[in-house]
Amino acid sequence: MLKDRTIMAVLAAKDINRAKDFYRDKLGLEPSESMEDDSLLYSGGNGTGFLIYQTENAGTAKNTQMGWETDNLEAEMEELRGRGVVFEDYDFPGLKTENGVADNDWGRSAWFLDSEGNILNISQRK
What are the VOC domain coordinates in residue numbering (predicted)? Predict the structure, then answer.
């Protein structure tokens, strides 16, 4: 059943055109298709993908909503910073970042916000 199905993340956007510009200009991503006037579908590696749809509820979640796994966190962060992405710094119980990076037993992670206030993540396993 579901364990064998492709998983797709779903993100909210108050302004779908602003989100499209962010994902193109900052992350280097182009939508693979437009499902309706107010939604965009992006394809990722290994059959993964995500949908962005327009809603007034965008930016209200206070948790990580989507992430990418990489084998070179520093290189990804350098490229994204070069495109204007700003990484978040956190300092609360269980999570402290230094220069945007948190290190734990699992690996290393960094977070940033998209144009709609969604919290996105990049991680590298140890």
Answer: 5-125
Place of tokens 């939508």: 31
Beta strands in 1-126 (DSSP E): 8-13, 33-36, 39-43, 49-54, 64-69, 91-92, 95-98, 101-103, 107-113, 119-125
pLDDT tens profile 69-97: 999 999 999 999 999 999 999 999 989 99
Decide: helix, strand or coil at residue 104: coil
Q: Name the β-bridge partners of 89.
A: none
pLDDT in tens, 26-72: 999 999 987 778 999 999 999 899 999 999 999 899 999 999 999 99
